[in-house]
């Protein structure tokens, strides 16, 4: 079924994303990468025998569980907001992502260093959340 012309020509469809939309886009980029890092570290914990391995493994499991829940929520919010994000290219120490926010298309480029710092920041925030009482 074709989209009615009134919706296609709706000026609100082509406005730049709001601050909340940008946060959703950034979360959709960084959170899956942070989850990969935690999963890799969890597998490494299983390979190495350490005295406190079970405590660290349980903490990693809790972090992964919360990250997966947040990733699911983020994906739902992106879909509800009409936003799509995909990796565009990677070169010269930068990674670029293309997003479409209700008809407004743009590319966002991030340095590998920025992505690495954001991943560390997010993982630290999740770790802090484990040991903080609600």
Mean pLDDT over all positions:
87
Main sheet: strands, sense, barrel: 3 strands, antiparallel
Spatial strand order of the main sheet: 1-2-3
What does the overall shape look like?
elongated
Question: How many beta-strand elements?
Answer: 3
Number of helices: 4
Helix content: 55-70%
Beta content comes to 15-25%
Secondary-structure element order, as H and E?
HHHEEEH
Q: Which blocks of ≥5 consecutive residues have pLDDT under 50?
A: 1-6
Span from first to last CA? 48 Å
Counting helices, strands and paired strands, the structural category is alpha+beta
Topology:
Layout: H1 5-8, H2 19-47, H3 53-81, E1 83-91, E2 94-101, E3 104-111, H4 112-130
Antiparallel strand pairs: 1-2, 2-3
Helix pairs in contact: 2-3, 2-4, 3-4
Description of the structure:
The protein is α+β, with helices and mostly antiparallel strands and 134 residues long. The chain is built from 4 helices and 3 strands. It has helices at 5-8, 19-47, 53-81, 112-130, and strands at residues 83-91, 94-101, 104-111. The protein has a 3-stranded antiparallel sheet. Helix 2 runs antiparallel to helix 3 (53-81). The radius of gyration is 18 Å and the shape is elongated. 12% of the residues are buried.
